[in-house]
Amino acid sequence: MLIVSAVGASWWFLSLGTSGSHLRSLYATQPENWPQPTLDAGVELDELGSLPPAQSVDDELADLGKHLFFDPRLSKSGRFPVHLVMIRNWLGRMVGVLLLVMTGTR
Fold it and tell me: Number of helices and strands (H, E) in the chain?
């Protein structure tokens, strides 16, 4: 379903003669330069506006975060770094969802 939507959206943009890079350049400017949206009847537009400027990244803090994320000493057993625990938890949830969908029960 998602693939069909993505292909349909790409075809729609191409049929209008609008490329992704052209839209990106438009949306990189101020909101008043953005293309006007097409709305269904009864739908009100609530503009998001421009994003705030990105904050600078402190390289030392980023390196510390990376080091801690992969350090197994922070786990209870001292054997598993954070990233492996997160992957294990995510996989466990996905297996649970698949079982629920396949069997219709928990």
Answer: 4, 0
Residue 92 domain boundaries? 59-103
Q: Looking at the structure, do residues 63 and 29 belong to the same domain, yes or no?
A: no
pTM above 0.70, yes or no: no
Residues 80, 72 contacting (CB under 8 angstroms):
yes
Q: Is the pLDDT of residue 65 over 70?
A: yes
Name the residue with tokens 């097409």: 38
Give the other-Cβ count within 10 Å of 81's Cβ. Answer: 15
Residue pointed to by tokens 């350090």:
71
Residue type, 5: S
State the pLDDT at residue 13: 46
43 to 1, 32, 34, 49: CA distances (angstroms)? 25, 20, 19, 18
Question: Ramachandran region of residue 104, left (φ > 0), alpha (ψ -120 to 50) or beta?
Answer: left
In the chain, the amino acid numbered 1 is M
Asked whether residue 19 is domain-assigned, the answer is yes
Question: pLDDT tens, 22-52?
Answer: 888 888 888 788 888 888 999 888 877 767 7
